[in-house]
Amino acid sequence: MPPLHLLDLPNEVIRDVVSLLPVKDVKAVRYCCRRLSDAASAFLYRSLYVSCHDPNLMVFEMVSDNPLLLGGVQELIIDDTTVSPVLLNRRLYQQLSSQDGFWKDRKTPYFPRDEDDSWDNEGRTWSPAATDQMHQLLVWAYENHHQNRLANSDVAALWAALPGMTSLRSLVLTNRTADDCPAEGAQSKHNSSPVVREWRKMGEALRERLPFPPRVDWWVPLEDDQHEGDEVFEPDWLLDGASHYMTPNEDDQFSHHEQDDDGLARSDDGNDDAQELALVHTQAENQAALPSNQTPLPLSTRLLRRESRGLRIAIEVLRNPTMMHRLTQFRVDASLDTLADVQTPGLSMRIFDFVAPPFVNQLSTAFSKMFLTSFAVVLSNGRENEAGQAILDQRQFSSVLASMHCLRHLMLEAHGMAVVGAIPERFTFPELRTAEFACGLIARPELRRFLRRHRNTLQHLRLLYCSVDDDEPSWSDLVQDILRLKTMGHTNLRTAVMISGYETVPFTGCGRNRSKTSPPPEEPVYSWTMGVNEDVVECPIEQLGHKALPRLPEP
């Protein structure tokens, strides 16, 4: 059979061919002819970001104005990040960047090729503060952010575009930053917003990360229950650490606040004494860049706390009658950038509290009317497990899970909480295929009951950075439970993996950013893969959920 010219093929075949191309090639194909342009347009913006940042909003509106582009959007990503207005002042921006601790990752490539890849070349001289070029990019990205936020410009653009998103299947809520650099999902290497893409592009060109990428803290626990009332759930509420410590007045001097006002963390040992975050000290080589009377600032100057604006927008999308029939996936891509190791990434567990606005009822109602097949969520527990666990025990979050009757893939990351126990005890997902539990507490009886209830459907199980929550915790016993259930035919798992399992309960931190509290030196951390290991094995150092000291050589 003689070869066919591409244009001699049916439109369906052309679309299938174009769907396999990378985005840069899709752009090139669109310039060939009208027919190829129409076929390729549907694959140009498979993921579309909406936020209050001007560049993101402009691209969103541009796509919305083109039905061919808008009709190809398969994933809508709500970028909830924001920026402190203080940083728009060039002098304050440079003063803050010159202090040690606020730009600690500047020498690390965004996506290093290997472990030895570094921008810190021998003999390189690093500038004492961020440059005007860097500040110009920040102003370009965020100059009108807060005007757009107060005017709800992003929400208005989103409502106008939703009817045209005929291919939309996935909704994502994220607070990831340009510095997160995940392997997949929102703000990854091949799926990033216009702002993050330009941010990293300049960083790659300058061979140093830019300071102060847009960010937001969904929950930062404060001392004495400061800002813990209903006002934090208002859509325009924002707690800005930089504005608290810095004032762009006539002389550009810092405001002076007592360090005692900064109660953003507790100690790792579990007591109630406030742990003062380390003050940021000016590097000696940077002294010339600062006024002689500059006050060293705490790391909480980076604080940008806002709990529910992004979630409110996501809920309204989920409740849209048209979207209920289109969306099949909902995911929370949480930033791993926390102010201190005692804090954990993810949505505030407080949004599932009885005293919070009716987020639970809204989510449960929306999910119950959808054919939701994939659900992934990350929950922050504040500063200690009692706070989040008490809310989890109210079973509000459990009612949200129980509303998903068509779920096939579940990823639940609940820091320091009963992660398997969050699922209602007598509830079964009729079609569940994959379950992943991370950074939580696993009780052996709860896991056994979960596996038995899902024996007919569950094929894949992953346990990451979890602790065994038993009187005599033992990962070996838990692994034997799984193998025994499989031998008895009470589970039909094809794969089961456990990575970085702890037998004590780490008091703080998250395993994904390796900030968990280190266990006692004599206590091993385990891993296990079904079909490869008969019993647990010691976890490799590179997979640990905490920062481990290098081992001393054998004598």
Overall geometry: globular
Quick one: biggest sheet? 12 strands, mixed
Distance between the termini: 72 Å
Structural class: alpha/beta
Strand content: 5-15%
How many distinct helices? Answer: 18
Helicity range: 25-40%
Report the mean per-residue pLDDT as an integer.
85
Protein name: F-box domain-containing protein
Descriptive overview:
Residues 253-269 have a biased composition (Basic and acidic residues). Residues 3-48 form the F-box domain. There is one protein chain. The chain has 555 residues and is α/β, with parallel strands linked by helices. Among the domains are: 1-44, Monooxygenase (Up-down Bundle), CATH 1.20.1280; 85-114 and 128-152 and 178-183 and 195-304, no CATH class; 374-543. The protein is 28% helix and 12% strand. It has helices at residues 11-19, 23-29, 34-41, 54-64, 67-70, 90-97, 132-142, 145-150, 153-161, 194-206, 241-245, 309-319, 321-324, 359-368, 385-392, 396-402, 444-453, 475-487; strands spanning 47-50, 75-79, 170-174, 239-240, 304-305, 329-333, 347-348, 374-380, 409-414, 434-438, 441-442, 460-464, 467-468, 495-501, 526-529, 537-538. The strands form three sheets. Strands 1, 2, 3, 6, 7, 8, 9, 10, 12, 14, 15 and 16 form a twelve-stranded mixed β-sheet that branches. A two-stranded antiparallel sheet has the order 4-5. A two-stranded parallel ribbon has the order 11-13. β15 and β16 form a beta hairpin. α7 (132-142) packs antiparallel against α10, α14 (359-368) packs parallel to α16 and α17 runs parallel beside α18. Mean pLDDT is 85; it is low at 250-293 and 551-555.
